[in-house]
């Protein structure tokens, strides 16, 4: 049994070649929900959905976001209407009262659908409509996710990190903004001052997640701050990780990050933007998988391989290195 902690594209890329290494029916994936937003009344769970679409054979692997060959008629119409009406396509937060009223699962991250600053395909939107409707019927996010996983014929167990709302808020020189505004609408350009996981003090990991963390854990090469940070902010998760074998795959080669804003976010959170900084951020990790070219000297066991993952063969190689590291500490 193995559990992978997933956010962004790093861990999903690892999962794309993991079946030859980790038996899918004995694999659990815990998805970050700090990136979730409610857009036009529909709850979008980007990190959970990337795994859902990947394992369902429908992921757009050019973007690692959304469904392959999806149409975008509704999105296009929303943009056209907003531009014709002079409303623009910038992110439009609902007001403070509306942010905290109604469905708790969407608190602190509600956006109007006017102009729709995130591109949502039509088939992708059907997933969000179904998820939101199941929540409105009384299902938890965990239950709704399991229903969708069944619809996509997943053979592994996919869990959201919590049924409670946590929102990753990036504080920048331009003011605070949800991570999706920072990264999607603004391209990660405002200088980062700090990162907040709003709601994490009240949120809890589900029993299903805590049970999954009793198994060996692999932390993929995801962003340590915005992909793993929301999970680690939940009461009980860091303690559970400290009690089980954990292997982490570094998203850096020494001080060079593979992709995304992890370097700027690491520095904003007070860590060195490097593999050494990742090791400091992950005190619970018992071993690491590093790139062959990464000479970082760590005080914990290290397995080295080529950690770039351009295809499923690459992903299988990295997954085998993770299993080797787990065997060394088990």
From TrEMBL:
Pfam families: CofD. It catalyses: (2S)-lactyl-2-diphospho-5'-guanosine + 7,8-didemethyl-8-hydroxy-5-deazariboflavin = oxidized coenzyme F420-0 + GMP + H(+). GO terms for biological process: F420-0 metabolic process. 7,8-didemethyl-8-hydroxy-5-deazariboflavin binds at residue 49. The keyword Magnesium applies. Belongs to the CofD family. This is 2-phospho-L-lactate transferase. The lineage of its organism: Archaea, Methanobacteriati, Methanobacteriota, Stenosarchaea group, Halobacteria.
């Amino acid at each position: 049994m193995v559990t992978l902690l997933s956010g962004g594209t790093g861990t999903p890329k690892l999962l794309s070649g993991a079946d030859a290494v980790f038996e899918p029916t004995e694999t659990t994936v815990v998805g970050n929900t700090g990136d979730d937003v409610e857009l036009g009344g529909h709850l979008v769970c980007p990190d959970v959905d990337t795994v859902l679409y990947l394992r369902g054979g429908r992921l757009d692997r050019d973007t690692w976001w959304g469904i392959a060959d999806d149409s975008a008629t509704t999105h296009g119409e929303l943009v056209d209407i907003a531009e014709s009406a002079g409303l623009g396509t910038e992110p439009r937060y609902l007001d403070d009262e509306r942010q905290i009223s109604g469905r708790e699962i969407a608190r602190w991250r509600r956006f109007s659908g006017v102009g729709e600053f995130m591109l949502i395909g039509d088939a992708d939107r059907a997933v969000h409509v179904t998820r939101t409707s199941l929540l409105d019927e009384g299902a938890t996010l965990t239950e709704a996710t399991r229903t969708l996983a069944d619809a996509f014929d997943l053979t592994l167990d996919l869990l959201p990190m919590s049924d409670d709302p946590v929102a990753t808020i990036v504080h920048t020189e331009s003011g605070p903004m949800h991570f999706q505004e920072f990264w999607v609408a603004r391209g990660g350009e405002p200088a980062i001052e700090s990162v907040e996981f709003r709601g994490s003090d009240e949120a809890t990991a589900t029993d299903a997640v805590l049970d999954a963390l009793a198994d060996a854990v692999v932390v993929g090469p995801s962003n340590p701050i915005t992909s793993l940070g929301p999970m680690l902010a939940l009461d009980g998760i860091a303690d559970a990780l400290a009690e089980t074998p954990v292997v982490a795959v570094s998203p850096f080669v020494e001080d060079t990050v593979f992709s995304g804003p992890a370097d700027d976010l690491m520095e904003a959170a007070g860590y060195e933007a490097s593999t050494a900084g990742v090791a400091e951020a992950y005190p619970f990790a018992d071993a690491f998988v590093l790139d062959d070219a990464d000479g970082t000297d760590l005080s914990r066991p290290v397995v080295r391989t080529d950690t770039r993952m351009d295809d499923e063969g690459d992903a299988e190689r990295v997954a085998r290195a993770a299993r080797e590291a787990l065997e060394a500490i088990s």
